[in-house]
Amino acid sequence: MLALYSLKRTFGSVNAVDDVTVTVDEGQMVGIIGRSGAGKSTLLRLINRLVEPSNGKIMFGGEDVTRLKGRELRLWRASCAMIFQQFNLVERMDVLTNVLLGRVAHQGLFSTIARRFSDEETAMAVQALHRLDLLPQAMQKAGTLSGGQQQRVAIAKALVQRPQVMLADEPIASLDPANATRVMEALRRINKEDGITVLVNLHTLDTARTYCDRIIGMRAGRVVFEGTPDQLTRERLKSIYDVEGSDLELDESVTSTALRPQRADEYRRVSLA
Predict the structure, then answer these.
(1) What does the sequence similarity comment in the record state about its family (predicted)?
(2) Which of 122, 181, 203, 229 is the most interior residue, by most CB within 10 Å?
(3) What's the pTM?
(4) Phi-psi domain of 36 (left: phi exceeds 0; alpha: psi -120 through 50; beta: other)
(5) Residue 44 belongs to what domain range?
């Protein structure tokens, strides 16, 4: 079980994550929703320890993650794989090598740079690419792939870390609908087949409802909703997105309409399914 206790992160006078206490059961797929600037990305980075908490505690399997240092911290980051919106691949390298870079925490930096990978590790990478329907592209340079393919390479790279938790920060934000579906289906399949806990930041409400067992709604750094997709009522959505009356268009008969909050300076009106 992953448990966050009174987790807080401040940047100057801004509380990016403000007193968050949440537990996530093993094997759950959790969608995190909220407006831009709600603290979703910072929350995932805190869990992975890419950002240090100002206060609070992160526990996983009885271990205090906030106290980890050195090699133990590197192994935690491997066990808690992170997938980014920007893919984070080395575009000039081939796809297979990019996937093998996911072994850096286990291999060591210098062995990884020298590309000294074992036969077992290479087999792991090949299997991961096969699962993501990317084996034919194994020797292509990563930069030649489409955005959807690159994101699936990033997922394969995360898989070879042999994680217990997978964090995905807006993994489909820059993808077209067809590729977004393939990426979300891949994450859901990994969640179900491998029992890996998945936390994913999403900007579309219908995607969260379709793929996630549980939804967490954030507003101004705080968790303002926790529950199943069917518990996400119109009133709760208004609370999450801080909109009232004429600022919110609701059409419950159009179930395919996606919630797409814009950046703070572009945010005007939202249409909710």
Answers:
(1) Belongs to the ABC transporter superfamily.
(2) 203
(3) 0.84
(4) beta
(5) 2-272
